[in-house]
Amino acid sequence: MTAAATSTTPPGTSPPARRVPRQERSRRRVESLLDAAARLVVERGVAALTTRDIAEAAGAPVASLYQYFADKEGVLLALAQRDMDEMDTQVAEDLAGVELLSVATLVRTTMAAYVAVYRRRPAFVEIYLRGRTNAAVHRFGREHNVRTAQLLRDLAVDAGLARPDLSPQVAELAVEVGDRVFQLAYEHDEAGDQALVEEGITMVTAYLERYATPAGLTGVAR
After folding, report:
1. Domain ranges for the chain
2. Nearest to 1 by CA among 117, 86, 79
3. pLDDT tens across 119-164, in order?
4. DSSP helix, strand, coil percent of the chain (3-state; round to 5)
5. Is the dihedral of CA 81, 126, 10, 54 positive or negative?
6. Pairing of strands 220-221, 100-101
7. Where would I find the beta strands (DSSP E) of 19-173?
8. Which CATH class is domain 79-221?
């Protein structure tokens, strides 16, 4: 999810990379560019980022950056995707370790996993939570929220935690509410307002428990 959209890119989807690095040297160069972009985003924010600044910070010619990314948005999306992949892995690992899975522990574990990655990835906070005025980043966030909602909804129903009438739209709304809570919690606080996050966990849990089975309320042993 890197380069700018082309005429062959379906509406509402993220465009492909301009060039996929296959050799180890090329992969290291791309990682160096992304690491430089991450540092600059934390220092200056998303709006002030330029491709020339990224290349200079990485010690690379700007032409080298354009081999892999069409523009600044391409770099931002690649950086966001890299960190979001880490986020998805964290959620999956943490949910796999829950001994008593319920609607409440599903919500808490998922949102706590997000907090853990936000602490490790300050650039992700800048791009994903504070950079939504950028149209490409906004679209990236919406696309990911839809996928996350579907995965978590299927998990809850398949595990017997939620009734089948928990619709994809309801699950998506719950994810969007949680996402907005994080935006507010990290809007002015680098560490995040954890009291606000707790309120968000309580709110999303109460909303989804309306669709919980008895087992979803008491918990299912894993």
Report:
1. 79-221
2. 79
3. 999 999 999 998 888 888 899 999 999 999 999 999 999 999 999 9
4. 70, 5, 30
5. negative
6. antiparallel
7. 100-101
8. mainly alpha
